[in-house]
Amino acid sequence: MTTKDLPFTVRPLDPLKDAELLHGWVTHPKSAFWMMQDARLEDVERAYMEIAADEHHHAFLGLHEDQPAFLMEKYDPAHRELVGLYEPEPGDVGMHFLVAPTDTPVHGFTRAVITAVMAFLFEDPATRRVVVEPDVRNTAVHALNAAVGFVPERKIRKPEKQALLSFCTREQFTKAVAA
């Protein structure tokens, strides 16, 4: 599966142009696990300017029918987020995603988003495995991760949370979305 098979497009995030939109998303009560509930607009701009300047961390905006629908971050776990917490393998790519909060949820939309995110990451032939580290309390995302092929390995302690370190190979993803 590729992103061509899904109704989404992905573009690089523009930290200044997109900051106001992102601010509304990351401070929304439904985005508590994003850990930016008290962020000011300037904090969001600064955080995404830092990502834009980082060669090991990238942010993207996902669009559905040309409308902003989700945020995705891709990072190199050998250099960001998970340094010293596991032994990275060649081809490992770290990922975070956040679906735009809505008062009118569409059944299956978030699963379609994570499927599109994974397809986007695996379009790079160098990506062998996607690594995630969601909060252990975020049971909703654990279920979504399992639906696209992630297998939990163990709990890890990060400075900001206790996380569930999980991995998904290209083969696990392909098998999960074909089912």
Which features would summarize this protein structure in a list?
29% helix, alpha+beta, 179 residues, 7-stranded mixed beta sheet, 5 helices
Question: How does the SSE layout of this entry go?
Answer:
Blueprint: E1 8-12, H1 19-26, H2 41-52, E2 57-64, E3 67-75, E4 92-99, H3 109-122, E5 129-132, H4 139-147, E6 151-158, E7 161-169, H5 170-178
Parallel strand pairs: 4-5
Antiparallel strand pairs: 1-2, 2-3, 3-4, 5-7, 6-7
Helix pairs in contact: 1-2
Detailed description of the structure:
There is one protein chain. The chain has 179 residues and is of the alpha+beta class. 29% of the residues lie in helices and 28% in strands. It has five helices and seven strands. It has helices at residues 19-26, 41-52, 109-122, 139-147, 170-178; strands at residues 8-12, 57-64, 67-75, 92-99, 129-132, 151-158, 161-169. It has a seven-stranded mixed sheet with strand order 1-2-3-4-5-7-6, with helices on both faces. A hairpin with a 2-residue loop joins strand 2 and strand 3. Helix 1 (19-26) packs across helix 2 (41-52). The longest helix is centred in the middle third of the chain and has 14 residues, at 109-122. It is globular and about 35 Å long. The two termini are 12 Å apart. The model has no long low-confidence stretch (mean pLDDT 92).
Radius of gyration: 15 Å
Anisotropy-based shape:
globular
Strand coverage percent: 25-35%
What's the order of the H and E elements? EHHEEEHEHEEH
Mean pLDDT: 92
- The beta-strand count equals 7
- Please bin the fraction of helical residues: 25-40%
The strand line-up of the biggest sheet is 1-2-3-4-5-7-6
- Uncertain segments of ≥5 residues (pLDDT<50)? none
Main β-sheet: number of strands, strand sense, barrel status?
7 strands, mixed
The total of helices stands at 5
Distance between the termini: 12 Å
Could you say which structural class the secondary elements and strand pairing correspond to? alpha+beta
